[in-house]
Amino acid sequence: MQKQQRVVIDHVSPEINGGEFSIKRVVGQEVHVSADVLADGHDVVAASVLYKHENEKQWQESRMDPGHNDDWYGSFKVEKQGYYAYKIECWVDYALNWQHGIGRKIADGQHVSSELAEGVLYVEEVMKKAGDLGYLSISVPEAYGGMGMGFTNTVLVCDYISGATGSFSTAFGAHTGIGTMPITLYGTEEQKQKYVPKLASGEWFGAYCLTEPGAGSDANSGKTKAVLSEDGTHYKITGGKMWISNAGFCSVMIVFARIGDDKNITGFIVENDPSNGISMGDEEHKLGIRSSSTRQVFFNETKVPVENMLAGQGEGFKIAMNALNVGRIKLAAACLEAQRRTISTAVNYSNERMQFNVPISSFGAIQAKLAEMAMNSYAGESATYRAAHDIETRINIRISEGNTHQEAELKGVEEFAIECSILKVSVSEDVQACADEGIQIFGGMGFSKDTPMESAWRDARITRIYEGTNEINRMLSVGMLVKKAMKGHIDLIGPAMKVANELTGIPSFDTPDYSVTLSEEKAMIEKLKKVFLMVAGAAVQKYGPNLEDHQQLLMAASNILIEIYMAESAILRTEKNIKRFGEESQKHQIEMSQLYLYNAVDIIHKNAKEGIVSFSEGDEQRMMLMGLKRFTKYQNQPNVVALRNGISEKVQKIKSDINENISNLKKFKKRLDPRLYNGAIFIGLDSPVVKSHGGTDYIGFSNSLNVCNRIVKGNLIEKIKQNI
After folding, report:
1. Model pLDDT, residue 100
2. pLDDT band at 97 (very low <50, low <70, confident <90, very high)
3. Which CATH class is domain 114-314?
4. Which of 48, 285, 401, 415 has the highest CB neighbour count under 10 A?
């Protein structure tokens, strides 16, 4: 990857005597500007004409177009009387340079491995900067060079550091989560001392080698073999892995292989040494996250010391599943900031895009989209940080009971594996929907690569696939719940029987008092839980352990479970903040909670009905459908349009306030910039003299010249003489 720093600009036209005299144009005419623009090398360059009227402070920009032989052309329109200033700004467009090069090669049917690798270098460079700033060490214990921050803080960092691009988000998550965490949680003291400090600092980067061509969702079916050497000092690993994130620049890999005829796979720490039988395929040409490194990795009798085995023989599947649990909640967190950025961009565009002489943000159809996008983001935040706090609380309880941090975190996360799967599914689908609506708000421009929406959509698409597909996670969420019930860890059948008995009893005809804010919504959540118990309990009773063979029923039950958890999380968050800050301050949060629940009720009703009519019949079916109607009935239906309008107005106002605050901060910053007031005037001379500090830059000197200009224009010297 070339890093050219210079762009040469020559033969700027029009200019008279090097700019000494002004060119003349009348209002309405265009000023056509040309220049020779070239880079030190053969990189793609870009150029703009920056122009402003003498009474304006801000430069306006007009992009220039390339001609032949380094000629570039641009223009701007004279809109009012007075003097205009213009200048040319040029740069090497590294991203476009890379994109054009790879596009031409793909069109020509050439291999593009080197170009894809070059795109990866951008992410690798940023990852190194993240390491320098300490972001890679957030969740690493202090004993191994980390910050040792709590689980909620690690999720928070993952959230806000991941919003700019899916490529960096993928690299960051793969390294800090599944690349480093298996060693910190399952490694021996020697392994942790050897590897974790380097991973925490960014000196080394990690990768996670689990998936194989024949072992995707069925991770434990991998064919990669590990054979113990005759002298018992090392294992020889042979096999191939695919879809390995960070493979292109990793120093160490967590590799899963099978020893002999073991039922379960085993985990190993493998240093990336090409001379040790490790080779890699080309960088994958992907739909999205294109700058993240994704390669196949091949092992040919790669020697791994026996002391580099993780946990123990046959423990690899357990390691993989627990690592994925953490990866799933962090993936949800990574999707949150991506939603916020998409919403902000969509709001800005909808406020600026004029149609029928008004901004499109004033249209109800656009307001509905913005409201739903904001609502899903709010629910995703609520649920993600609810689960993160619950996990951290369990970790702290276990530590207080005498568990090591290692044991406490393993068990703490494992206890909330269901919530991790729920979050992975819900938030990944929300970010995809958000990006899709973002494209729709942009209209035709949203389909163009020149706007950020199409890349946001492409990057979002992978989130429904990795860390376990959403279909797998749906079935896992209910499957794990049923298994806990079968083992007696939780009581599922008892509450389900109570619901069944309630259906056969006489319902209460009393009118509940829902005068307290969110009281009806909380009551509705309790009724929706009865829907889940009714459907899931009946399915368990009918199919027992064979329920896992009925995947469509599991999917329907999972959709019910997911919507209950997400809606309840939003309501609990809002209720908590009402107590803290007052109801008026949470007006729009209340609206988002109510709107999410309204949508959730419809989803739950559809999925519950689908399950009921599929596994029941006759009187049982009629009774359950009657119960479904009872449990999904509102006492007071919300005004959906009013909710959406309120949310949309708030979202637009927040963005407007942010933009205004940024503008004010920029103005304040200028007031603090000494370069803008550079130069001391010498009094008592017949000509203007301004003294600047010898260390000032071009901005300071420019403003010193402006001071001189004002002295002359204002005839300051003559005025001083007259007054004296």
Report:
1. 55
2. low
3. mainly beta
4. 48
φ and ψ at residue 446, rounded to 5 degrees: -65, -25
For 346, residues 6+ apart whose C-beta sits below 8 A from its C-beta are 369, 370, 373, 437, 438, 441, 442, 453
* Number of helical (H) and strand (E) elements in the chain, helices listed first: 20, 19
Rg (CA), the chain: 31
Instruction: Write the pLDDT tens digit of every residue in 336-380.
Output: 999 999 999 999 899 888 899 899 999 999 999 999 999 999 999
Strand residue runs (E) in 147-198:
none
User: With DSSP H G I counted as helix, E B as strand and the rest as coil, what are the percentages for the chain, rounded to 5?
Assistant: 60, 15, 25
On the question of pLDDT at 393 being above 50, the answer is: yes
5-14, 98-107, 501-510, 599-608: range with lowest mean pLDDT: 98-107
Question: Does pLDDT of 2 surpass 50?
Answer: no
Both tokens assigned to 460: 């979002």
As given in the structure block, the two tokens for residue 633 are 């009935």
Strands, DSSP E only, in 285-380? 294-305, 309-310, 354-355, 358-359
How far apart CA 227 and CA 313 sit, in angstroms, is 12
Give pLDDT, residue 186.
93
State the virtual CA torsion across 515, 520, 522, 527 in degrees, nearest 10.
150
Would residue 68 be called left, alpha or beta, if left means φ above 0 and alpha means ψ between -120 and 50 degrees?
beta
**Among 712, 528, 688, residue whose Cα is nearest residue 606:** 528
Residue 255 identity: V
- Reported as a single tens digit per residue, the pLDDT across 285-336 is 888 888 889 999 999 999 999 999 999 999 999 998 888 888 899 999 999 9
Read off the pLDDT band of 4 (50, 70, 90): very low
Q: Compute the distance between CA of residue 144 and CA of residue 202 in angstroms, rounded to an integer.
A: 13
pLDDT in tens, 524-537: 999 999 999 999 98
What integer pLDDT is reported at residue 41 of this predicted model? 62
CATH topology classification for 7-92: Immunoglobulin-like (2.60.40)
Residue 30, class by beta-carbon neighbours within 10 Å (0-12 exposed, 13-18 middle, 19+ buried)?
A: exposed
What element of type H or E holds 167?
Answer: helix 166-173
DSSP string, 415-460: HTHHHHHHHHHHHHHHHHHHHHHHHHHHGGGGGSTTSTHHHHHHHH
Pick from 324, 530, 528, 527: nearest CA to 423: 324
Catalytic residue numbers, as ranges = 467
Is the CB of residue 598 less than 8 Å from the CB of residue 571?
Answer: no
Strand spans (E) along 260-293: 266-271, 278-280
Please name the residues in contact with 454: beta carbons below 8 A apart, sequence gap of 6 or more.
Answer: 439, 446, 447, 448
Residue 283 DSSP SS3: coil
Strand-pairing partners, residue 422, are none
Same fold: 7-92 with 114-314: no
Query: Greatest CA separation found in the chain?
Result: 109
Q: What is the pLDDT of residue 511?
A: 81
Half-sphere exposure of 631 (CA within 13 A, CB side): 29
Residue 618 burial (CB < 10 Å; 0-12/13-18/19+)?
exposed
Token readout for 499 is 């619901």
For residue 335, give the amino acid letter: C
Query: Closest by alpha carbon to 117, among 328, 297, 290?
Result: 290
Give the mean model confidence (pLDDT) for residues 425-429: 97
Give the rounded distance of the alpha carbon of 560 from its chain centre. 25
Q: What is the pTM of this model?
A: 0.76
**Amino acid in the structure at residue 687:** S
Q: For residues 204 and 139, what is the distance between their CA atoms, to the nearest angstrom?
A: 16
The residues spanned by each domain of the chain are 7-92, 114-314, 484-507+518-638, 675-723
User: What is the Cα 107 distance to its own chain's centre?
Assistant: 31
Least confident range of 178-192, 211-225, 710-724: 710-724
Residue 30, CB-side half-sphere exposure with 13 Å CA sphere? 9
Q: For residue 237, which of 246, 250, 247, 228 has the smallest C-alpha distance? A: 228
